[in-house]
Amino acid sequence: MTRDKARDILFELTKTESLRRHARTVELVMEAMAKHFGEDVEKFAITGLLHDADYEKFPDQHPNVIVEKLNGMGEAELAHAIAGHYTKWNVPRNSLLDKCIVAADELTGFIVASALVRPTRIVGLGAKSVMKKFKTKTFAASVDRDEVRKGAELIGWELRDLITFIITVLEENKEELELESVG
Asked: Which regions of 9-161 does DSSP assign to beta strands (E)?
């Protein structure tokens, strides 16, 4: 599958700009992880782009709709990673792709939320600040902190290092992601 085809699928299923932006941020983080680990960049990026593609239209069936669609297209590896991008779904994480999507998803969303409440957005945001917000249960309360920790563990990284990695990726793409300083 090409990224253009994946983007078509995302735009067909996802209409809100916020969920499309989340998909794009996770796509960029997954692309960077693939480069870091010497893995297939397109496969990782497409997994990031499509991991929540069916969430808006089919929230009660997520991620089954996108998983079925990908399996039907012969994209079993992508489908499996997406089927297990939340550890409580009890899908085995066999490959680095399966593990990286867990590490990227919740934490990327949390870091974006952390950036959006700052006047300088992602610019100058450090792991220490994100860790402080992470300990504040009322901040981005829907983010599953256990899931974030498990994601870091799955890829064998300290949480602080994973946060720094993701911040770097988001900062490199701050214009596109609208994470530049305001005012």
From this structure: none
Measured at the CA of 80, the angle between CA 57 and CA 9, to 5 degrees, comes to 35
Q: Are 78 and 47 in contact (CB under 8 A)?
A: yes
> Is this prediction's pTM over 0.90?
yes
Single-letter residue type at 70: L
Q: Which domains are delineated in the chain?
A: 3-172 (1.10.3210)
SS3 12: helix
The amino acid at residue 18 is S
**64-85 confidence digits (pLDDT tens):** 999 999 999 999 999 999 999 9
- Tokens found for residue 181: 């300083």
Residue 10: count of CB within 10 angstroms of its CB = 23
Cα separation, 135 vs 130, in Å, equals: 9
